[in-house]
Amino acid sequence: MRDNHINPAFRADGWVLLLFVCLLIFGWVSVCGASHSFGELDFLSFDSRAGKQLLWISCALGLGAIILMFDDHYFDMMADLVYWIIMLVLFVTPFLAHDIKGSKSWISLGPVNLQPAEFAKCATALMLSKLIGQNGFTLNVRAHLFKASAYVLLPLLLIVLQKETGSALVFFAFFLMFYREGMSGSILFCAVAAVTYFIIGIGYSYDLLPGTTASIGEFSVLLLIWLFTVGLLKVYHPRQPEHARRILSGGVLLHLLTYGFSSLILPFDVSWGQLIGLTAMIVYLGVQWIGQRMRSFLLISIFSIGSIGFLYASDYALNNVLKEYQRTRIKVLLGVEEDRDASYNVNQSKIAIGSGGLQGKGFMNGTQTKLDYVPEQDTDFIFCTVGEEQGFVGASVVLLLFLALILRLILLAERQTSTFGRVFGYCVLSILLFHVFINIGMVLGLAPVIGIPLPFFSYGGSSLWGFTLLLFIFLRIDAGRKKR
Amino acid sequence: MPKDYSYEKRKYTIAAIATVVIVVYIIRLFSLQLMSDDYRKSADSNAFRKEIIYPSRGLIHDRNGKLLVYNEPSYNILVTMQDQRGVDTLDFCRTVGITKEEYIERMADIKDSKKHPGYSRNTPQLFMSQIPAREFSKFREKLFRFNGFSAEKRSVRRYAESIGAHFLGDVGEVNQTDIDSDSYYKSGDYIGKLGVERSYEKVLRGEKGMRIMLRDVHGRTQGHYQDGKYDTEAKPGRNLTLGIDLQTQLLAERLLENKLGAIVAIEPETGEVLCMASAPSYDPRTMVGRDRGKHHRILMQHPMRPLLNRAISGTYPPGSTFKMTQVLMGLQEGSIDPHVAFPCYHGFNYKGLHLGCHGHTTPTPLLSAIQTSCNAYFCWNLLRMFGNRPKYGNVQTAMTRWKDHLVRMGFGYKLGIDLPGERRGMIPNADYYDKAYKKSWNALTVISISIGQGEVTATPLQVANLCATIANRGFYYVPHMTRRVQGGRIDTTYTRPRHTMVDRRWYEYAVEGMRRAVLGGTCRGANLPDIEVCGKTGTAQNRGQDHSAFMGFAPMHKPKIALCVYIENGGFGADFAVPIGSLIIEQYLTGKLSEASRKKAELFQHRIIKYGNYAR
């Protein structure tokens, strides 16, 4: 009871605040390094990007302080209202916005341009927290999962309409929170499997397997489907090991026969042999399902059929549905194609980071970033500046700061007494992780070039304020939690 | 709220995902930043443009400080294709003086990546080179209208007088061999090609400086890297002061007009070359700038070989001038004695061998023999030396001794003058004759070497050096062009005296003989009223008309100049070489020519020697 009389701002988690401030300082230094030409040293002038960023940071700190003053019940109460208002704003944005680099996502409010999509993350997080926090709402009930997903997909679609694909993809981060809240792990497994099939299937689609006319990509994916199926059988039917054993030995025999025939006698497309084998396997599983009336056999066979379908559908979608530039981006990322324009950015970015060495070139001494070789060097590619000027040491420290923040947030989320608080905490850390994963992965040449900002680093107010909102609302909720 | 707990362990999965992502990224950072240096190199080549600052080339002065060679600004026109837009091509062509077709061709050449591997749209490319300042000023006025064009200042050599093409040499673009042998040079740099420009290249060129400029993604310069911390200034080339006396050189070149031949004069007490002329010559001013290649080709193909510096690269039979070496050697070896005379009945007669001589009294003692250039005397000398079995054992040993004397006097090998292209001449040795005559030969077989004919050849420089040695009474300094190098010393090769194997006292006889030759012998024409000139003529037999040669020094005591004049097909030594030699001596020692001498100089300047079908 005594706690209620203390200003909740003093009970905000010190570790998160410390990490937040560290990241802000690091971020501002990087913006200074990235946005200045040599010889100019006017960090504090509001005409310069560094000066403006300092203003945004001050506003963010003010915003954080204000949020800490709120009563924590407001967040729960206001969630629906805020969510729908933001949805409305998102809906009208394309009509009000002017075109900036092909996207219609910015609204001008006097001197400041705001990107509502950045705030939609927070609104959606609040809405989902409230929804899942309701008594009796569990994500392992399919109807509940669909409902929660609908709240995620609505802003996602609205943002896609603004042609901000990158910001829209961020909403998939909520599925990580769903997983924590009871969504079946198999959905996560399916997502990972799909990404793996995609990367291998498309990435190696033009390399032929030696001794055959099959592509390595197709062959490997079909091999994986077979192995996954065997794995699933072992996990879900530990008491009937004969099924897994039969499928495993049959598969080995089949691969040896087809591959041996192809490489020794007459080269042919061995994936046809694999497909016949997989069909036989699915029939076998179907027979087991009918015979034993166990649904898991059906689900495993559906997984196999779905996997095969996904492989061929993704190939078809890539070549026939996606636009040329999207196809190029994906193919460049997967190393199938060498495209000058698309690979230029990633290449220059790798040069910038690689040239930093162990200790970096020193503050304001990065040549790659300062001389405009790296595109978007103070927004999406800002991590280049860190890598170039602060070197391996600085860049690793930044990564570890993010990791520390995420782990700390997991800890805080888990200590919440209300589902609302925990769900919100997981929303915050999932979004943070997704941004770091995609943004730095892109800069390092490991993830596709998707234009999303690096939290607390990238130049601009909207993104910074969006993350400040998320973080401080959670801090406020945490500060007001009841002792368990 | 009981529903929480069943999924709580999933926090570990999520924490593991986050940790794996970050660890993978750190590993990726490690491989990018620490595993290879390639990215740093790529970044550097992206960002740095190294701008060369060219040093000014050292100046060349004559011995009195008169400027011979200096620099004048010239300009290269560069073009940056990226910015080259909206240029009035016709106006441009008119301004720089080329045709539209040449313009189109040049542009195509620049863009052709085969001919031009370093091509980039964003960096300035060489469009035209070496435009003289006068022509360039027209271009500069209009430069603002020619977007994408820029200019780079270089310099070209200028010559105060049209003299000394052979020893001054010239400067031209480096060739692949130059680039391969010295990493200092980059394509397009200049290097001394001939003469002192080549031999003192490292002194004259200076050191290039470098500015490291930052270049942004558009190829624009964004200032100095690290505020110029790593920039280096160009070090200007050092100046050279040559031993050449401009006035004497001018006279020497005048006197050689319409003839083939060479004049070399040396200051005996230092070995400095006072003048060096070779004919035919050419105007060094033509070997500058854009037309250098064309002119060079014409000179290369000319039958009289004007590029050949006959003073150091022409090897001639030295003729009677060579007799002075025989006198000195004979006295030292004891085959002759100042007081012993030898008979000369219109020549040398021995065992049926006859070698003619011109009319003079007989028998001939040493000094008269020099004075009259008596062939017989020197034949006797060689015969007595090569036949002295008690002393040498056999003719081979005697021949070796003979050769050693000459080598120590500077014959048979390059003297080592600081100019490229020196030839060594020919002094036969015993092996040579053993091969030629199957070991069956004696003094009589090779008797003509005693009078500087036969197999013996020498360059005018070697003869002038012999003269300097006599003037010095027994030693010489390796002849050299350079008197002083700014801020340095000349090579010790040129400051160390070289002594011959002949005692100083014998040299006094040689000097006395040469003095008599001027006073009342073969080179009376070299006599000057107030100067004690010593000289020796040479008339070198040849397939055509004899070569006319003279060597002499003055004054007799404390000599200041020793020279050799060699006029191809000039007849007797007295016909051309002697009068020309005396004019040079007079010019150098008195600084002017007397009225009579001026007339004589005029006469000899315009006297033409006809060279029918020249075949040297």
Any chance you could write out the topology, listing elements then pairs?
The complex is a heterodimer of chains A (484) and B (616).
Chain A: H1 14-35, H2 49-69, H3 73-96, E1 107-109, E2 112-114, H4 116-133, H5 142-161, H6 165-169, H7 174-180, H8 185-203, H9 216-236, H10 241-264, H11 270-292, H12 295-321, H13 324-333, H14 340-354, H15 367-370, H16 382-414, H17 419-443, H18 461-479
Helix pairs in contact in A: 1-2, 1-16, 2-18, 3-4, 3-5, 4-5, 4-17, 4-18, 7-17, 8-9, 8-12, 9-10, 9-11, 9-12, 10-11, 11-12, 14-16, 16-17, 17-18
Chain B: H1 10-33, H2 38-47, E1 48-53, E2 60-61, E3 67-79, H3 89-96, H4 100-111, E4 125-132, H5 133-142, E5 149-159, H6 165-168, E6 171-173, H7 176-181, E7 190-192, H8 195-199, H9 201-205, E8 209-215, E9 221-224, E10 240-242, H10 246-255, E11 261-267, E12 272-279, H11 292-301, H12 310-313, H13 323-333, E13 347-350, E14 353-356, H14 366-372, H15 375-386, H16 389-392, H17 395-408, H18 430-437, H19 460-471, E15 475-476, E16 482-485, E17 498-499, H20 504-520, E18 534-540, E19 547-554, E20 561-567, H21 577-590, H22 595-606
Can you walk me through this structure?
The complex is a heterodimer of chains A (about 475) and B (about 625). Chain A has about 475 residues and is an all-alpha fold. Among the domains of chain A are: about 1-40 and about 345-455, no CATH class; about 205-330, no CATH class. In chain A, about 70% of the residues lie in helices and about 0% in strands. A two-stranded antiparallel ribbon of chain A has the order 1-2. The longest helix of chain A has about 35 residues, at about 380-415. The mean pLDDT of chain A is about 85. Chain B has about 625 residues and is α+β, with helices and mostly antiparallel strands. In chain B, about 35% of the residues lie in helices and about 20% in strands. Chain B is built from 22 helices and 20 strands. Chain B is elongated, with a radius of gyration of 34 Å. The chains are: A mainly alpha (about 475), B alpha+beta (about 625). Chains A and B meet through helix 7, helix 14, helix 15, helix 16 and helix 17 of A and helix 1 and helix 2 of B.
